[in-house]
Specification:
InterPro entries: HD/PDEase_dom (IPR003607), HDIG_dom (IPR006675), HDOD (IPR013976), RNase_Y/CdgJ (IPR052340). This is HDOD domain-containing protein. By secondary structure, the chain is mainly α. The chain has one domain (about 15-285): Hypothetical protein af1432, CATH 1.10.3210.10. It has helices spanning about 15-25, 30-40, 45-55, 55-65, 80-110, 115-135, 140-150, 155-160, 165-175, 180-190, 190-200, 205-215, 225-240, 255-260, 265-285. Helix 1 (about 15-25) runs parallel beside helix 11, helix 6 packs antiparallel against helix 7 and helix 8 crosses helix 11 (about 190-200). The longest helix is centred in the N-terminal third of the chain and has 29 residues, at about 80-110.
């Protein structure tokens, strides 16, 4: 095992500079924040949701594209946002709104990694898996999807501002057969779970989501099941599905206490993996990230 003393000290990052970089990130659009707020309420009227969604033309177009996708068998028949919501349902729509908003934010982050497609596909897979796990627990699916989709957002901070170091971290992890987060800590002194927490605090996400992202590689061993357990297991499921098209770097095994708290049997897991893969292909076909910067 490589030790911290053996890692190149020249790659250490300045934490104060990183904090400034994150504070400089654009805020999420007000329409998106309003939609996220509505999705967390159980008594939101469909018309209220539709009227809010119409304020963002780009999101409205994507909603219509998904409602008319072959997955629903209604190609070309859905022409209004309200009808699209009826087809998709508010829960599925919540998934879509969050994914589309993050897709738009990728451009503002200016990420330049050659593996951005890999990052995006893994993020969608983790978000979808988290949504299915939340449904099994009877929890808010849109919140779980948001946490799963954003779980690795801290990696984009380093990639966008320090692309050479991000590439070296990735190479170091593969060469030394260690997880990406371990390589981050050894080389840069900070890992993406902490940076992801900072980003979510800047974007004013709920505490539940922020904590889940901060703890998604190491949920607390004791206590009841939390969203951190859901994202942790969803991350493992996403790696198991291997939907990115490339080999994964070494990842630590999922914590047994998270599996136990979520009460996952092999039969349940097999069904969840199948459902998550089907939904992944549905979303991935519609939500393509912007092309990478050369």
């Amino acid at each position: 095992m490589t030790t911290l003393a053996q890692a190149p000290s020249a790659l250490l990052l300045n934490r104060e500079a990183l904090a400034r970089d994150i504070r400089a990130l654009p805020s999420l659009p007000p329409v998106v924040m309003e939609l996220l707020s509505l999705m967390q309420k159980s008594d939101t009227a469909l018309d209220h949701f539709a009227d809010t969604l119409r304020l963002d033309q780009a999101l409205s177009v994507i909603v219509l594209q998904l409602a008319n996708s072959p997955f629903y068998g209604l190609s070309g028949r859905i022409s209004s946002v309200r009808d699209a919501i009826n087809v998709l349902g508010l829960r599925q729509l919540g998934t879509l709104v969050v994914a589309a908003a993050l897709n738009a934010q990728l451009g503002t982050l200016g990420a330049r990694s050659r593996e951005m497609q890999v990052f995006w596909r893994h993020s969608i897979a983790c978000g979808v898996a988290a949504r299915h796990l939340a449904r099994l627990q009877g929890w808010n699916e849109a919140v779980a999807f948001t946490a799963g989709l954003l779980h690795d957002i801290g990696r984009l901070v380093v990639d966008s501002h320090y692309p050479d170091r991000a590439a070296q971290v990735m190479a170091w992890a593969k060469t030394h057969d260690m997880s990406h987060s371990e390589a981050e800590r050894q080389l840069t002194g900070v890992d993406h779970t902490e940076l992801g927490q900072w980003v979510c605090e800047h974007w004013r996400f709920p505490t539940e989501i922020t904590q889940a992202i901060a703890q998604h590689h190491c949920p607390p061993e004791n206590g009841p099941a939390t969203l951190a357990d859901v994202v942790h297991v969803a991350d493992a499921m996403a790696h198991t599905l291997d939907l990115t098209g490339q080999d994964h770097e070494a990842e630590p095994p999922a914590r047994p206490w998270s599996w136990q708290r979520l009460k996952l049997s092999e039969e349940i897991l097999s069904t969840l993996l199948q459902s998550a893969e089907e939904e992944f292909h549905q979303l991935e076909a519609v939500l393509q990230p912007a092309k990478e910067t050369p």
